[in-house]
């Protein structure tokens, strides 16, 4: 019986032998199904026949898929999860430590920032320092906020992800992570992608994840906005608080397998 990885590999081989273009020189190239940075993943999922969703579950046959054009320095989103303590944590962050977007017609604070773990970083727009730290005593990953770089005590309430919530996401989403390496080319004014390789990471454990936090090898994307219309106007809209890592760092911390296609 074929494994799910073998099924995925065969699908990639099929894609490499077909194309959206008739000329043999463009074999394996497929026109982007969406503009922008998410086009590469959207196109690949469409080719697999997967419907787009926001479920906290693996993408395909129990495998979490990530298609990336450049694997050297690009950040890979492992999973998205808002802090689970206290209730409404992202609303607290946005209202108390956010900033008003000067380009918005609404006088409502938002908060957008990419934070490297275990480092105190300044957000110029909000005029606050943020730090994501691993509190092993409390068994939490915390977001601390400060007024200045040397301040000892955080001014924020206890905003955190519990170890249990992180481990739950890892077990649900990242039992098997497949990174699809890709090329991009503009042909006749349109963007095309070619999917060229497959790297499989097996079982990112909680202890490995925490080690990466301690070693400043993970990033947290805060993308906390507000709804500008509808029944939830003015309320917090979390665009996806994401834990992200570089391919090279994942390779140093998690066992991987390179699979030829």
TrEMBL record:
Domain of life: Bacteria
GO molecular function: endonuclease activity
Keyword Hydrolase (UniProt): yes
The entry's keywords: Endonuclease, Hydrolase, Nuclease
Signal peptide range: none
Domain MvaI/BcnI restriction endonuclease: 27-251
Stated name of the protein: MvaI/BcnI restriction endonuclease family protein
